[in-house]
User: Fold At1g61320/AtMIF1 LRR domain-containing protein from Urochloa decumbens.
Amino acid sequence: MPTRYAARAASVSRAFLQSWRSHPNLALSNFDEVFGSKKDARPKDERTRDFITRVDGILKNHSGIGLKTFKLQIFSAKAAHFDHLDSWLRIAVTPRTEELMLDLRSTSAKYNFPCSLLSDRTGDSLQYLLLASCNFHPRIEIGCLRSLTRLHLRKVHITDGDLGCLLSNSFALELLELSDCSTIICLKIPCLKKLRHLGVLSCDSLQVVESKATNLSSLSFVVELHVRLSLGETSLIKELDRSCSNVAFYARTELPSSMPNLETLTICSIHEVVDTLPMLPSRFLHLKFLQIVLGGYKSSISDYFSLVSFLEASPSLETFILRVFPLHEEHVSVFKDPLVLRTMPEQHHVKLKRVTIINFYSAKSMVELACHILESTTSLEQLTLDTTNGVHRCSVNKSGKCSGMRRERLVEARRAFLAAQTYIKPKVPSTVEYNILEPCSKCYAVEVEPLDVKNCHI
Assistant:
């Protein structure tokens, strides 16, 4: 219930007022004031004052008893909000608080989080802490966060030393995610025996990641390859999500030896400078799920057929997802050169069950890849070719419309559908569920010239 209506209900109902005062979960946001109804023509300063007044009333009337979760999200935070934040947090954060989320979005003036809130016994029960867009310097005032299991810092100004102090006082930590924390240069993780997941996303100044955590099993990195990683025993890592330039080549050439027990791998290549991937003897013996995302402002791998190298290296693979963003590449269309399609009849994939290609288009090498999978996989149960970029359909979108696609992509989607029906569908066994997804005819009723198959090219 929006806070405005909750406050009105509390003013006329004693029972509702009593339940409000002891409610264990509070989630407060000024989203309506910033992005709300166009009918609200009040000046921004008046809307800000209204939000502050309502939050003041809610927190001052709350007994504090039983408050376990407190979430405060402020869009376009101003100094007027900062003047009240300390008092709001002191009311909300108690020795019984288990989850604290403070998200100050789109703020240029950084708020200094009062670390004294987490000192003494106040932070003993805290299990989840999320801070976004603030200054956080816990070196001196922080206490022992003995119950903290999850920590998320997003766009937080924190020094290497402050972060080290925080981690050294968080012995129970199981999940750590740092996103857009541009002041971190050297991330050093102490021997946290319970830490299972580490995520480091777009921390632009980062140069080194050193971890002494002995039980890391899941990694999510959006960092370039030049960042030095020292992760200790990497044979325990079973799940990796890695985004950077040239990551496909890196994943194929180096990962099998450095992380031999991977079961789930997602790679997102922003810029790949190689035309084709090599066939190598190194293998991912335990890999069951593989997702490859290719695209960016510069050319990706131009030979999609070479991705067979990953399939050949993964004898236990069950699910393969390929998502491409063909923005500036020049690929030979299957209609322009249809005579000879490459095959590798000596290869066989006996566990692969589900294959999805998103942004499937009429590039010859992509058609060759799909045909190879059909011809060499005896275990295949489902093949899905999505000629859109995975857009949300009108049937599930709140707006009632499909996500937008440009006219040139709609034209290419028609080529892709024709390519799939001509070269791929005839090879689909009766035991395989075959799905070809086209742009919605209702939302994309665009008139295009009839396709000339003989002259089709990208």
